[in-house]
Design a protein that fits this description.
By secondary structure, the chain is an alpha/beta fold. It contains four helices and five strands, in the order αβαββαβαβ. The protein has a five-stranded mixed β-sheet, covered by helices on one side.
Length: about 140
């Protein structure tokens, strides 16, 4: 029995399979290059700055609607209680690390602090830290 034609057929099949495999090889991964953000003129702090939510007693001259809640500041910028969630959502929309720190006056009820923490969690903050008197926030340079 002559096996030469059988070997010829096998070599042709091997070449056909090699050509099919080469054509099906992926060309690479799709890469998305980061784009520059559109300047919207908003006052969102840069992502390298620590976010500290400060809770103080309401001002003595505040009207009755604002006297129900303490004065809230985000990085020393006054924010109305009703706009706190929107402000935090705007700040943390562009951040990878969603960490905020809460600092309150000594005689603020913890319920107020818990409400601020709940609002921060709803706004997208993953971790909330509490600042104590010993660990005062030091402003980062840069």
């Amino acid at each position: 029995m002559n096996v030469t034609p059988l070997i010829d057929v096998l070599l042709v099949l091997i070449i056909i399979f090699m050509v099919v495999v080469i054509e099906q090889r992926p060309t690479g991964l799709q890469a998305e290059i980061p784009q520059q953000p559109n300047p919207t003129g908003s006052t969102i702090p840069p992502p390298n700055r620590t976010i500290v939510i400060q809770i103080h007693h309401p001002k003595p001259g505040a009207d009755r609607s604002q006297a129900e809640h303490p004065q809230v500041m985000v990085n020393e910028e006054a924010v109305e209680w009703d706009r706190l969630r929107e402000r935090l959502r705007d700040i943390f929309a562009i951040r990878v690390e969603r960490i905020a720190y809460v600092e309150a006056d000594d005689d603020i009820d913890f319920q107020e602090v818990a409400d601020v923490i709940a609002i921060a969690r709803i706004a997208g903050v993953d971790r909330v830290g509490l600042l104590t008197e010993d660990g005062k926030h030091v402003r980062m340079k840069g």
